[in-house]
Amino acid sequence: SYQCMETTPSLACANKCVFCWRHHTNPVGREWRWKMDDAKVIVNGAITNHQKMIKKLKGVPGVKPERYKEAFTVRHCALSLVGEPIMYPQINEFLDLLHGKGISSFLVTNAQFPERIRNLNPCTQLYVSIDAATKDTLKAVDRPLFKDFWERFISSLKALRGKNITRTVYRLTLVKEWNMGDVSAYCKLLTIGLPLLIEIKAVTYCGDSKASSLTIKNTPYHEEVCKFGEQICKTYQEMYPDSERRYELACEHEHSNCILIADTKLKQNGKWNTWIDYDKFQALYENWSRTGETFSAFQYMAPTPEWAVYGSTEHGFDPDEMRVRKKGKKARQERQDKEGKEKENAAD
Predict the structure, then answer these.
(1) Nearest to 32 by CA among 12, 7, 8
(2) Using CA atoms, how far apart are residues 36 and 42, in angstroms rounded to an integer?
(3) Distance (Å, rounded) from C-alpha 124 to C-alpha 105?
(4) What is the pLDDT of residues 261-286, one digit of tens each?
(5) How far lies 30's CA from each of 88, 195, 318, in Å?
(6) pTM over cut 0.85
(7) HEC profile of the chain
């Protein structure tokens, strides 16, 4: 993640979601009506500003010198910072520029522009936000600008189903007391887009806002997120036993309050392959760009480390990394253990 740049080519959005971390300070609109910067200007500017932010971390305690040096080379780009990136008129040129620099692309769309999804060039991973399972709930959570928001939402899922050249993902942000009710309705939506992956995460509380009534109580615990994911897998199998997709819990990231459900086609010889071979993707994309030869998400999958598999003792935390806790019982215990070891070393 230290080589990942988060940005967006569009500050504007067609929704005013209750959990938007920008507290609705960004512009909204149903179409592009702003001055447009060239894709090359945005990409180069984003990289430059990303590197400027990294420079501020020089000498900060805990920053590894080798990681600091490597971070200046951007390898991944998350187009999810704010707004609706797919609204940007030159989004395909934007993606091509990223891939031309060897940068992978993770694009998140709010499912209000189905035609833009259909016309989108391959990206490394394409997410569609599934913020609710029914029309009324979606209206309450996303607060969309379009009157035909539900029709656009469903059409976007149908468009996603046709993006076989890309890893497709349903992204569910769980908000307690808002959108964690009808599991069967979520399963019905799965049959429309048939995503390869389903990412389920708890909403992040971003403080008080006049634009939203959410509080920290609306953030589900990791155990609740896991239980919801288990219900999705169980209910989908019961409702659609003959579906071409068979979903199972594949990964978890407890410290991010997030889990991943995947199609079992990503499991080979009993081992999950939910990770990405980025070099292979770049090679496939370059060949597609040059010859038009299509490829599939299965051609650039990579093995999932055991520590990232759902139910592992590490719960998604890389054991080669150092975890730093500042608060809570575990933080106090870690400090006590550290102090005890220091006393033992001093006595020796």
Answers:
(1) 12
(2) 10
(3) 5
(4) 999 999 999 999 999 999 999 999 99
(5) 12, 26, 42
(6) yes
(7) CCCEEEECCCCCECCCCCCCCCCCCCCECCCCCCCCCCHHHHHHHHHHHHHHHHHCCCCCCCCCHHHHHHCCCCCEEEECCCCCHHHCCCHHHHHHHHHHCCCEEEEEECCCCHHHHHCCCCCCEEEEECCCCCHHHHHHHHCCCCCCHHHHHHHHHHHHHCCCCCEEEEEEEECCCCCCCCHHHHHHHHHHHCCCEEEEEECCCCCCECCECCCHHHCCCHHHHHHHHHHHHHHHHHHCCCCCCCEEEEEEEHHHCEEEEEEHHHEECCEECCEECHHHHHHHHHHHHHHCCCCCHHHHEECCCHHHECCCCCCCCCCCCCCCCCCCHHHHHHHHHHHHHHHHHHHC
Find the range with the poorest average confidence among 71-85, 225-239, 280-294. 71-85
User: What average pLDDT score do residues 128-135 get?
Assistant: 95
97 residue type, one letter: L
Q: Kindly state the tokens that stand for 105.
A: 């692309």
- β-bridge pairing 247-253 and 258-263: antiparallel
Between CA 178 and CA 272 the distance in angstroms is 32
Task: Using alpha carbons, list the distances in angstroms from residue 91 to 80, 87, 107.
Answer: 13, 8, 10
Integer Cα distance of 43 and 31 in angstroms = 22
- CA-CA distance, 57 to 45, in Å (whole number)? 19
Share of the chain above pLDDT 70, in %: 91
Q: For residues 47-73, b (16+ Cβ closer than 10 Å) or e, as one string? A: beebeeebeeeeeeeeeeeeebeebee
Q: Is the pLDDT of residue 150 over 90?
A: yes
Q: What is the mean pLDDT of the chain?
A: 91
**CA 303 from chain center: how many Å?**
19
Q: What is the pLDDT of residue 207?
A: 79
Phi, psi values for residue 104, rounded to 5°: -75, 160
